[in-house]
Structures are given as structure tokens and as C-alpha cells.
Here is the input.
Amino acid sequence: MTRHFVIACAVVAALATTALSMAQGNPFVGTWKLNVAKSHYDPGPAPQSQTRTWDSSGKVTVEGIDATGKPRTYGYTIKTDGMEYPATGATNGADSVSSKPIDATALQATFKRGRTPFEVADFSVSEKGKRLTIVSHGTNASGQTFKNVQVWDKQ
Here is the structure.
């Protein structure tokens, strides 16, 4: 009985270590806070604050206060397999997102409304893993073009 318990504990420890190393292997995983002062929104305005949580499965949740002072939450899934995944309440009304890797610390995501792409975002993590930069461009729901540079600090 003790032998089985020891083996079970070893298996659980190995699985936990594997999950931890996989999360550490993905530089995007973690909690990020928007650095509004270093970010640029054209045409704007910028949100007052945002926190982005990215889990090891690729699920991204963003919570914050928009430019008008109202709470805002949205989410989507980033998996670099080129498949489309649903977006919930995402910026500019996206209902799906697909992404592809650029390299080990960068990826590109395409957001769509219906079947129409309207935003492309390049995500990149700094060499030390402390800063996430998202450069996005496209056309908003009003038909106006935009280009945003968001700077996020790892928490």
C-alpha cells in the first residue's frame, strides 16, 4: 500500500512539474498590467486601466476601465495553430480570432467580425519577459482606421 502511495505521489509531482515548465515555456502566460503612459492609441482615446491574464491554455481575459470610466471585460483564445477561436466581448466587436507564431516570443493574431478580418495584432514579449507589446491596426466598427501600440508590464 505504501509503495502505491509513493508511486502516486511521484506521478502527481511529475505532472505538476510538467505543467509548471510548460507555463514557464510560454512567455505570454501570466498577468500583465497596461502601461497607459507608454501606450499610444490612434485615434484614441486610451482606456483608463486594464489587466490582461493569459493562461497556459491560451485563454486571454482582459478587465479594466474604458476611456469613459465604465468597467469592461473581454476575452479570447490565442493558439498558434491557425484555427479560429471565439472571442467574447472583444475590442471592436470581434467574434473570432486566429493566430500564428512569428518566433518564440512573438505571434500575430487576426480578429474577425463574421468572416471579415478587421484587425491584425502583433504580440511580442521582451527578451527578459517583463514587457508585452501589442501593435494592432485595422478598421473599427465605425469604419475608421486605427493603429494602437499597447505596452504591458508583467505583474
The longest strand covers residues 116-125. The CA atoms of residues 118 and 138 lie 5 Å apart. The helical segments are 2-25.
